[in-house]
């Protein structure tokens, strides 16, 4: 297999920006090469140049989706950045008992964030109605999220009580893994959504987590995505981003409450 040339890497940068709005830095050349090498082998191709030509064919939607999946997937874990889940608990406690509480995990990856949300809501709300929606551009990670089956190393920040109440520990061939209990899985809906395009009708939400994805967008794409997502929130709705991210210079209709935590105005 021929190595990935700078010219073809630039073409992959354009491909993923056009498909997902993601700006790949020059330091990601080895990541692109490593993640896509298996697709070259699967399609019996000897060069990235030939693979790019394949992706540019209109009828190759399935292969383009596979490439997007491989280039956008990031590993996550349960209860990452726990202050946001402490806020979610307070929001859930203050919400009216009779009205459904709807929370959006807008870049849900393999589902750990969405299920973490659901655990908090199930704990606080009990039988009172709630729904969690998880969305991602990668169909591959959404399939894994719907299964709710994870390696145990992902639970390092999960409260022990939640592990006991909401998860089943694997035994035998499944030892070292856990399965989210069916009753909780049924409270979470996973959908394929590209944040860089007009959103489907997702309904309104009381709170949105859009965490650790804005860092992959350039300034204009970031502005468009944030404004698009904020349209799903009412005035006073809560909006959380990653601790390494900010909304500076985006002219977003929010007020900052704490680092990485905002309310829509």
From TrEMBL:
Which key words are in the record?
Answer: Methyltransferase, S-adenosyl-L-methionine, Transferase
Checking Gene3D superfamilies in the record gives: Chemotaxis receptor methyltransferase CheR, N-terminal domain, Vaccinia Virus protein VP39
Leading EC class: transferase
Q: What chemistry does it catalyse, as a reaction equation?
A: L-glutamyl-[protein] + S-adenosyl-L-methionine = [protein]-L-glutamate 5-O-methyl ester + S-adenosyl-L-homocysteine
Q: What is its EC number?
A: 2.1.1.80
**UniProt KW Ribonucleoprotein keyword:** no
InterPro entries (UniProt xref): Bact_Chemotaxis_MeTrfase (IPR050903), Chemotaxis_MeTrfase_CheR (IPR026024), CheR_C (IPR022642), CheR_MeTrfase (IPR000780), CheR_N (IPR022641), CheR_N_sf (IPR036804), SAM-dependent_MTases_sf (IPR029063)
Q: Which residues form the CheR-type methyltransferase domain?
A: 1-265
* PANTHER family reported for this sequence: CHEMOTAXIS PROTEIN METHYLTRANSFERASE
Function in brief: Methylation of the membrane-bound methyl-accepting chemotaxis proteins (MCP) to form gamma-glutamyl methyl ester residues in MCP.
Name-wise, this protein is Chemotaxis protein methyltransferase
Q: Which organism is it from?
A: Ideonella oryzae
